Amino acid sequence: MLKICEWCGKDFDANVSYQIYCSAECRTTATKSNSVIRQRQKKAEARKGKDRRCATCRKPLSVYNDETFCSSCIGSTKDYKKFIRGLG
Known about the structure:
mainly alpha; 7% strand
């Protein structure tokens, strides 16, 4: 039975009717990738409803932001280094 791999898109001959990946390598890579996605979603859900603010400028952070800095502050290396020095 000819199928298309869910990960790489190659055509392959399936050994069983429910096979969706062409190889163990594609299956492992897809599983790891999906695990990372689920982990990020779980972290974002845990942050919902919490007041998270940038460590430098105190702007509200998105629930999808894994960092403790907002995008404008993390781009400013000078402010970042200043903040780190202030911790020590």
